[in-house]
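thoughts on these tokens:
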Amino acid sequence: MEKITSFTIDHLRLQTGLYVSRVDCAGQEKITTFDIRMTRPNTEPVMDTAAVHAIEHLGATYLRNDPQWKDRVLYFGPMGCRTGFYLLLAGEYKSADILPLVDGMFRFIAGYEGEIPGASAKDCGNYLDMNLPMARYHAEKYIREVLSNPAQDRLIYPD
């Protein structure tokens, strides 16, 4: 079997960042998959599942309510390795195109207080596994490391 594209990225050189992972076609429509890399693979500790789960709920809520982007959001969810998230958008974009959207989402998460949307037994299959303080910590770290000064090497995969 062929190695899939995401396994061909050199994770030993990968930094935290906002990368275009791939652009696919679904009929006539292009779909851009973004790699929102929040921790440095194989170097930093991975995010715990409760923080990831809280980020997923808050991020999806923010994205699907953004007036400009909500109709283009196809998916937002965690990577299995717990080092970041995938965001799939209808259309073809570069990382710089979505910086304001991702910045807004992480600022929303970093400043969020109160009950996490969808964190109830009726709405979620594992509603007790949420950690808002750690979600806020990871959001603040991502803002600081990536979004506050988005260097080109944090927007394009290393060769």
